[in-house]
From TrEMBL:
Pfam families cross-referenced by the UniProt entry: DUF7134, HATPase_c, HisKA_3
SUPFAM superfamilies named among the record's database cross-references: ATPase domain of HSP90 chaperone/DNA topoisomerase II/histidine kinase
Keyword check for Kinase: yes
Catalytic activity, as annotated: ATP + protein L-histidine = ADP + protein N-phospho-L-histidine
Keywords per UniProt: ATP-binding, Kinase, Nucleotide-binding, Phosphoprotein, Transferase, Two-component regulatory system
Domain of life: Bacteria
Protein name: histidine kinase
Domain (DUF7134): residue spans on this chain: 1-150
Stretches assigned to the Histidine kinase/HSP90-like ATPase domain: 288-385
Ranges of residues in domain Signal transduction histidine kinase subgroup 3 dimerisation and phosphoacceptor: 178-243
Enzyme nomenclature, EC number: 2.7.13.3
Amino acid sequence: MRAHPMAGDILIAVLVLLVDVAFFLIVSNAPNGDISPWYVTLPIDVATVAPLIVRRKYPLPAAYAVLIMGALHAALELGTAAAVASCIFVYSVVVYVSRRAGVVYLVLMLAATITQLQIQVREQWVTDSVVAGLLLILCWGFGEFVSARRAYQAEVEARLHLLETEQDHATKIAVAEERARIARELHDVVAHAVSVIVVHADGASYAIGSNPELARTAVRTISETGRGALAELRRLLDVLRDDRPDERPRVPQPTAGDLTDLAERMRTAGLPVELDVDADFAELPAGVSLGVYRIVQESLTNTLKHAGNGARAKVSVHVAGERIAVDISDDGAGKARPVVPGSRTFPGGNGVIGMRERASVYGGTLRIGPTPGGGWKVSARLPVRLDQ
């Protein structure tokens, strides 16, 4: 019935028709049977039940066709098809059209039924009318129940679809954010390590003949930096490949408290760094502390790559009220750069994009640009506390 509703309606129509055919055979074969001949009865019976087949597709036209044919069927007293079809269509109009159309059809059907009974049964027409009216009203109430249930199911399905869509969008956003986070981590690790390796490799190539000891020191630094970078890359890749990350031992991420070690590594790489930081960053949220470290790391890496030989860098990290101020500047080895008046931010590569993302994700700000006397400056402001 649910898979093929028209087939079910055809079956209902055939059963109702068979009941009327059986009624015709019984009455016509009775000694005192008084019924219209078969060539009148059978066409009217068929015309009365035929609209049941299309009651879902064309409920309103079929309903009024039954109202007209049912009156003729009942007037000739040909059986029960008119009464059954009328009840079915009171229900169908409410379910498949609307409540208002159902009320109108119910009133017309009640009026037609009462009038028909009053004409045909003069003595007990009141009782029969009450019974017929209650039956039609019962069918109307059943239609109201089914219609409300269908509306409720449609609303539930719509809400579920909306929820699935929202969950799908949330999953895509979460995946994009996680990919961006991993890309930032990979870039920070690789860019820092490769920059140190390149600088030391260049120094070793120049000093290998004149100062072998300095070349050996540079090669050792290259080796240590490469091993450290590989270890961090393996850790990130293990997290990506592991299906059960909670069962693996956790390795702490660098924090703002590790800036002293970072500055020392940069000095070893050949970049003099002046460090001015607060003594304790333990109260910072883990994400903000990691962001401070990565911003300083990326800035110093860029200084090492682009500032040239003889450049010096200064790092200042201080907590001021509800913000932590991060300033990294270099002298660009004394090379002055033109500054556009009023310009405060400058585009950059993946490293600059990563720093901006780290600042904005926590509601902070980042400004990057050259300084008038030569060099470059990065200024970040991040919140000390994150809103819950």
